Amino acid sequence: MASEKQERAVHTRESLLLAAAETFDEYGYSGASINRILKRAGLTAGALYFHFDSKEDLARAVMNSQPKTIVPLLDSRGLQRLVDITLTWSRRLQEDPLLRAGVRLTNEQVSFGVQDATPYRSWSGIMADCLRDAHERGELQAGVDPAEVGEFVVEACTGMQMFSAVASGRTDLIERVTRMWRLLLPGIAVPAIVARIEVGPNRVRTSAA
User: Fold this and answer.
1) What is the CATH number of domain 2-63?
2) Which of the residue ranges 92-96, 132-136, 176-180, 203-207 would you say has the lowest mean pLDDT?
3) How many CB atoms are located within 10 Å of the residue 203 CB?
4) What is the model's pLDDT at position 3?
């Protein structure tokens, strides 16, 4: 019985997150009223406030859900995993409302009174872990700092998606990410690894299957 209740609670929370993401993506933070979110989720206010304290709390949860839309899809290691994260991210921004809303809210958060770098730091940490693994595997050039490069990649991708959103509705984002790696890899990876890393749309997986 307890397990069934837990499963229902998890399902309710996920339904609220998805409905909120779709609403934030469509209307922005200010236009995404609690009533709109509840109507889309088909749930009551009581269900929402059981899981989240406020609309801001719900927005923060959407912002911080970005990695789970991508990381479970990957099975590569080291530098290839880092490249795959960015390529998958660039494709799923066109397809996944939870990721898209998370990115939008993270970029626009100051406009609704929030200043939370957690989503950026979370991505930087994930990327730094990939680079530490790459170092242990002998893939990095001497002197490459995993934390520094991980943060730089997050900064670069943040700017790229904003540029791409205006220039093409993000349809060219995967090409921009591919170009970034062609420019960046020779400066951080040993030559043999540069030649082996696969970069391009063919690396993108759209499901965990």
Assistant:
1) 1.10.10.60
2) 203-207
3) 19
4) 79
Third-level CATH fold of 66-203: Tetracycline Repressor; domain 2 (1.10.357)
Whole-angstrom distance, CA of residue 176 vs CA of residue 193:
21
Axis crossing angle, helix 173-188 with helix 146-168, rounded to the nearest 10 = 160
- The token pair at 190 is 């040993």
Contact predicate 23/36, CB 8 Å: yes
CA distance 149 to 125: 10
Domain coordinates in residue numbering, the chain? 2-63, 66-203
pLDDT tens readout for residues 107-165 = 999 988 989 999 999 999 999 999 999 999 999 999 999 999 999 999 999 999 999 99
How far, in Å, CA of 114 to CA of 130, rounded? 29
Task: Please list, in sequence order, all residues whose beta carbon lies within 8 angstroms of the beta carbon of residue 172, skipping any fewer than 6 positions away.
Answer: 164
**Amino acid in the structure at residue 44:** T
**Residue 193, SS3 per DSSP:** helix
Q: How far apart are CA 133 and CA 136, in angstroms?
A: 5
| pTM listed for this prediction | 0.90
